[in-house]
């Protein structure tokens, strides 16, 4: 089971979107959140950028475009981990090509994720 | 963690700006502020209920919104209508679902995707089913009355 599979199983009360402050881009993230959680594709995980800490893990996810063409939704979640279990997930990054980076295919999203340090776990 | 309430919050979705009477935010121990998915779902359901119960033609922005909040794609919607997905590409260029009847069909489908499980327990008179558009207005209002969705209004087009 991947980190993202654990996020999909979380109750909606512990999945959050960061609010600092809200921009139109994050309103778009609100709209797509259900699609991201249900149909998103896991791109990998990494230790938090500012300081490695076993209590946290960051993951990248890409959801295909709703309309079937154009940019999908690339997002990052910070996971709070306790005793190897995911307790909460906070969306802190959302890109959909509208005045921000955008990725029309899974391969491009995966490449971007790798560039930013996300790696798929080897089972 | 404490809850903050922002009143008359302007939320941009489905091509409009919506007035959310109360938005509940969570202030975390580290000082950051976040919105729970359950809160986002509450607001999105309110908007979806309002869109589905509207007599106006379904816009492409609204169709995209309804797809997103029910985790469906345009291809799913096309399949539901029995049309090729390229038809929806034409609608995208047009900006709206061109025929009122098709928009009503989609609204009915999306409304039941969101509220059908609870609505299955409702009883009502057959008269409400006579006209498709009136039926959707009826279920929209009933969803609000039975607290399945909050009332919400839009302020302006975005």
Notes on the structure:
The complex is a heterodimer of chains A (123) and B (158). Helices cover 26% and strands 32% of the residues of chain A. With 123 residues, chain A is of the alpha+beta class. Chain A has one domain (3-115): Nuclear Transport Factor 2, Chain: A (Roll), CATH 3.10.450. Chain A starts with a helix and ends in an 8-residue tail after the last helix. With 158 residues, chain B is of the alpha+beta class. Chain B has one domain (2-157). Chain B has helices at residues 37-52, 60-69, 74-81, 85-94, 100-119, 132-145, and strands spanning 2-13, 16-27, 33-36, 153-157. The longest helix of chain B has 20 residues, at 100-119. Chain B is globular and about 50 Å long. The mean pLDDT of chain B is 90. Strand 1 of chain A pairs antiparallel with strand 3 (33-36) of chain B.
Give the biggest sheet of chain B: 4 strands, antiparallel
Class inferred from helices and paired strands of chain B: alpha+beta
Cα distance, first to last residue of chain A?
A: 9 Å
Mean pLDDT of chain A: 92
Mean pLDDT rating of chain B:
90
Strand content of chain A: 25-35%
Q: In the CATH hierarchy, what is the architecture of chain A at level 2?
A: Roll
Biggest beta sheet attributes of chain A: 5 strands, mixed
Counting copies of identical and different chains, the oligomeric state is: heterodimer
Helical residue percent of chain B? 40-55%
Q: Which blocks of ≥5 consecutive residues of chain B have pLDDT under 50?
A: none
């Amino acid at each position: 089971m991947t980190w993202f599979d654990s996020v999909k199983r979380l109750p909606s009360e512990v999945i959050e979107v960061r609010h600092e402050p809200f921009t139109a881009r994050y309103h778009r993230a609100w709209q797509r959140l259900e699609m991201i959680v249900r149909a998103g594709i896991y791109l990998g995980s990494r230790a938090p950028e500012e300081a490695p800490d076993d209590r946290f893990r960051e993951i990248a996810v890409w959801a295909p475009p709703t309309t079937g063409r154009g940019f999908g939704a690339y997002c990052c979640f910070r996971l709070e981990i306790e005793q190897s279990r995911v307790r909460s997930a906070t969306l802190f990054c959302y890109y959909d090509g509208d005045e921000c980076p955008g990725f029309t295919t899974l391969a491009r999203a995966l490449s971007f994720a790798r560039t930013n340090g996300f790696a798929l776990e080897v089972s | 963690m404490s809850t903050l309430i922002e009143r008359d919050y302007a939320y941009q979705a489905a091509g409009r700006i919506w007035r959310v009477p109360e938005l509940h935010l969570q202030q975390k121990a580290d000082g950051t502020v976040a919105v729970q998915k359950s809160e986002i779902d509450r607001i999105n359901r309110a908007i979806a209920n309002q869109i589905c119960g509207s007599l106006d033609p379904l816009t492409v922005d609204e169709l995209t919104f309804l797809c997103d909040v029910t985790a469906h794609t345009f291809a799913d919607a096309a399949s539901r209508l029995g049309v090729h997905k390229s038809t929806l590409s034409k609608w995208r260029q047009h900006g709206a679902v061109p025929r009122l009847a098709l928009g009503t069909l989609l609204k009915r489908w999306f409304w039941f995707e969101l509220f059908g499980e609870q609505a299955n327990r409702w009883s009502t008179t057959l008269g409400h089913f006579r006209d498709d558009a009136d039926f959707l207005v009826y279920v929209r209002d009933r969803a609000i009355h039975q607290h399945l969705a909050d009332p919400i209004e839009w302020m302006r087009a975005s």
